[in-house]
Structure prediction request, 137 residues.
Amino acid sequence: MAAFDFLGQHLHSLDSKKRVAIPAKFRQQLPEGPVYVTALSEGCLAVYPQSEWDDLVRQSLERLDPLSRNGRRTKRGLSSSAEQSIPDKQGRITISGKHLQQAGIGKEVVFVGAINCFEIWSKERWEAEEALAGDDD
Prediction:
């Protein structure tokens, strides 16, 4: 497994073509090639480098019975919610309309480091999530 250290929060804006620039600190850690974007149940998107995505898929498949209905459902859920995106020369990725809708993303987004991946939140949802985290004290 590759060692990544995606840390911190970074505010960015989505452009009219549904593209957003990956923060420079995150881009520095990304190897060349695709990233994988998937929706999370918290109402945000997770973005995985190729090696981390491969590990996630492998670990998920190892725990499944491939012939069971639940195993097939889990595989479909994992693969159908994910999309591959290749950062352009400016380090931008395109986010699908489906993912924008699932994450409630409008113009402003917050990139949040999550160690081995990073998340993309709508600014409003991230502020609500931070408020909830503060209530745990």
